[in-house]
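A favour, since you know our C-alpha cells better than I do. Go ahead and set the record down below.
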Amino acid sequence: MTLQNLLKEYQQAGNLVKVGLVGAGQMGEGLICQMEMMYGMRAFAVADVVPGRAVQAFQSANLPDDQIVETNRLDLAVAAIEEGRRLATQDASLLSQIPHLDIIVEATGVPEIGAKVALDAILNRKHVLQMNVETDATVGYLLRKMAKAANVVYTLTAGDEPGTTMELFDFASSLGFEVVCAGKGKNNPLDRTSNPDTVAEKARMRRMNPKMLASFEDGTKTMVEMTSLGNAIGFVPDVRGMHGPAVTAATLSKVYVPKEDGGILNQTGVVEYGLGVSPGVFVVFTTDHPKIIRDLQYLSMGSGPYWALYRPYHLTSLETPISIARAVLKGETTAATDYPPVAETITVAKKDLKAGEMIDGLGGFCVYGLIERADVARQEGLLPLGLAPGSQLLRDVAQGEPLTYADVKVDESLTIVHLRRLQDQQVAAPNGK
C-alpha cells in the first residue's frame, strides 16, 4: 500500500496523526503548511519562544483565527485539542504532556532545546522526529536507545541531507553493493569566519535566522549533518573536516574513490561533501561481480568500476511528513544511530578566543564545527560542538585551533551535557551498553 493510501484510509477511519512541533521558523512553518495539504495528519500544537510566531505559522497555513488557541496553560491546551482546535504556545514543555499528540517534531536547531524536547517526549512515551541534527550529532545515540527502551521511535527526517542520503545508502547497500562514500552537495560558499553580522543582509533577504545562515556558510551545518549520517551508517570522515572538492554529478564516481583508482580517498566507507552538486545528495558504490558489472554498463550507469547514485534535490521540511507517517503508522525510522558513534563534530575557534569568554551558539561569532573520527576526538579530548554553547574559556585559544574539554568549563546544568556524559559512559562500556 502506498503511503498516501495508508494516510487516506487512516483519515477515512476517523483518525489523524496529531503532530506537536517545537520551532515555528522557516522549516517549521513550511512543515505546517505541507501537512495541511495532506491526508491523515495535522499540526495540532506548535511551540515557539517568540511571541506570536506559532500563531503566525498557523495563519500562513490558512487556519482561521477561531481555530487557534494561544495559551501556556496545560489544561487549556488539552481542552483546545480535544475540541479539534490548534494550540499555539511559547512553552515547549507542554507538548509532551498533552496525551492526544502522537509525535513531537523538534525544529529549533538549538542543541540544548533539542535535547530537552526529545528527552521529555521519550519519557512521556511519544515518538520523536529530530530535525535538529545539532542535537542528534551530540546525543542521538543515547536518545535512540532510550526511545527503543520506551517502545517509541526516535528518527531523523526525510528531506534533510542525512535522511535523504540514507535512502540512497539503504537502496545500494541492501542490494549488496559496496558503498564507498556517501555525502551531500554544499549549498553555500565556504567561509569559516562567517557570522551573524557578515550575513545579516543576505539573511534578511532570504527571511532566515542570521545564525542559521552563518552556520551554513562557515561549514558547521554540513559537518553536523555528515556526522549524523556517518553515525547512522557507520561511516567516518576520510580526513578532519572532509575533503570537499569541486565536483559535478558526472564526476562523483571518479572523485570519491580510492587514490589508487584515481580518486581522493585514503579509505572507503566515508562521508563527504562536494562543491557543485548542491542541493543534491549521493552515494558512490562498487561491485566485483562480472555479471552485475555488465548489467550496470548495459543500463547506462557508466563503465565502472565505481558508480554513483545521485538525487539532485532535498526538500527539507516539506518531506518531513513522510518520516512522521513512517514513525507513527509503521514504527519505522528514516535514519538514526543504532550503534556507538563513529563520527564527531568538534569545536574550532572562529576567532582568537580569550580566557573568560563565553562561547555563543552555533553560527555565532566564536566557533565553528569540523567533523572528526569519534575515536580521535576521544583520544585528544576534543570538545563536541553541541556542548560548546554556554561554555566558558579557561585559557586563550587561537583562531583555527580545536577546543578541548580542558580548555573550557562546560555548563553542567544543561540537559545535553547530562545526556552526553551518560552517552559517553555507555559508549565506553563493553558492547556500548
Q: What stands out?
A: The first strand starts at residue 17 and ends at 22. The CA atoms of residues 167 and 334 lie 8 Å apart. The two ends are 37 Å apart (CA to CA).
